[in-house]
Design a protein that fits this description.
This protein has about 180 residues and is of the alpha+beta class. About 30% of the residues lie in helices and about 25% in strands. The chain has 2 domains: about 55 residues, no CATH class; about 100 residues, no CATH class. The longest helix is centred in the N-terminal third of the chain and has 20 residues.
Amino acid sequence: MSFRFAAGVGLGALIVPAIALAQGSASDAGGNWAAIAECGAIKNAQRRHECTDDVLQRAGILSTAQVAQEAREEFGKEERSAPPRQPRVIEQAQASAPVPAETPRRAADIDELLTTVSSIRTIGYQRVRVTTADGSVWDQTQAETFNAEPKVGDRFSVERASMSSFLCQIGRSSRYRCERTD
């Protein structure tokens, strides 16, 4: 890759968000459309999506709570080749809980998911399938015994592990390898 090309791409990555920030409010439809058009010119799909989301958030169409909820729902479904960027923990949202100031943009930004068990059943020799309160389904991928019988309502956590895998934990049990299956 030539230096000129890399410098041009880097400069473009800095200028386009600045243009998008300068434009756009809920009442400025023309400016919002121009900002979306600028986002559409970005060649990198990830950056293009982030730019579009920024414009939609500034226009008041997309809320940070909605972005955070969608990131929670997609946690564990993303491509295995994408490493997490910054460690963050998202807890199950309470109806009256305020949205954190810094919300994750995508599931790859989350390193741990904390929720509760909605249902649990055995799927094989010393293996369980857990459905969480937010509807995600996690299967145990290695045999593991539990000191106490897991039950509905127990705390359930999933965290990123090495090699794009996940570790689950029910209550205070030991952590075990798992994968999202829904």
